[in-house]
Amino acid sequence: MLDLSAETLFKQVRSTSPEEWTASGLGVVYVILIMRRHRWGWVAGGLSSLIFTVVFGRQHLPMQALLQFSYVVASVYGWCHWGQVAEQQRITLWRWKGHVVAVLLSVLASLVLAWLLGREGYSAWPFLDSLLFCLGMFATWLVARVYLENWAYWIVIDGVSIFLCLSQGLVVPALLFCIYLAVAALGLRSWWHSYRAGGAPA
Questions:
Q1: N or C: which end of the chain has fewer CB within 10 A?
Q2: Phi, psi angle pair for 101, to nearest 5°
Q3: What share of the chain is helix, strand, coil (3-state, %, to 5)?
Q4: For 155-198, what is each residue's pLDDT tens digit?
Q5: What are the backbone dihedrals phi and psi of residue 26, each rounded to the nearest 5 degrees, phi first?
Q6: What is the C-alpha radius of gyration for the chain, rounded to an integer number of angstroms?
Q7: What is the reported pTM?
Q8: Long-range Cβ contact pairs of 101-108 (< 8 A, separation 24 or more)
Q9: Closest listed residue to residue 143, CA positions, set 23, 67, 28, 35
Q10: pLDDT by residue (tens digit) across 140-152?
């Protein structure tokens, strides 16, 4: 059961490592730059994820650690794909059938991964840990391809991530995901208006 008392949260914040503070700060920079479609956001995101790979591994969330490492790789892809004129790339929508298939495959893959993690007994939250990994990979691809729907996935992912972080005593990363959640909502609104205007930046 989660203990969200002020005293407990204050103690957890005080015990937050410098690595968590640094990764969280870089994470904020990442989402702000990506929302504005600035290419350097991928650099900040890659560094943040590299640090979080270690943090989540220590907190018995192996799939979150693997997901963060995959973000490092995705950051390289995003940097290369966005090119020098990322701000000029047009926002588009992906076909709905693709979303259905992607979500179904994510759930099925998560069930298999959760079963494997359950056998090892290492992960604190096998299914949620795995599901966030699968959906996070997909959402990152949507971002790199400048698809509008990526923000809807991040809203769900960030909401669940807040719960996972709090359950493992990671208060500062949980606060980061709260910021991510708010920015994802703003990003969805901003990109939607840009999409309505023809896909170019408003």
A1: N
A2: -65, -45
A3: 80, 0, 20
A4: 999 999 898 888 877 777 788 789 889 988 988 998 898 888 87
A5: -65, -30
A6: 17
A7: 0.73
A8: 102/138, 103/135, 105/134, 106/131, 106/134, 106/135, 106/138, 107/131, 107/134
A9: 35
A10: 889 878 899 999 9
